[in-house]
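Suppose you are handed a protein chain with no further information: no name, no annotation, nothing but its sequence. What can you learn? This example shows the usual starting point.
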Amino acid sequence: MEIKGTLEAIFETKEFKSGFKKREFVINTGGDYPQSIKMEVVKDNIDKLDTLPIGSDVDCKIDIRGRLYEGNYYNNILAWAIDGSGAKSSKKAEVKEESDLPF
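A reasonable first move is to predict its three-dimensional structure. Written in structure tokens, the prediction is:
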């Protein structure tokens, strides 16, 4: 699967006792119904996030993972490839000027 959006947040790298590392980040999909989606990266992609500024457009290839743990279901979105130009999004809010003048 693929998801595109604007990089909204990058969190600190988490390292576990086993030596496993992961890092979470958030992208905003924009559009009429924008969604802020938290994803995670592991291994080599952790450092890739350091090269992308907040506000840049990114294209993420993802896998959705789920598991059952102690009677509860958990989902994760794993980004296994991140492509970003590093360019900041050019999306800006439009300001519409209206005049109360009759002419």
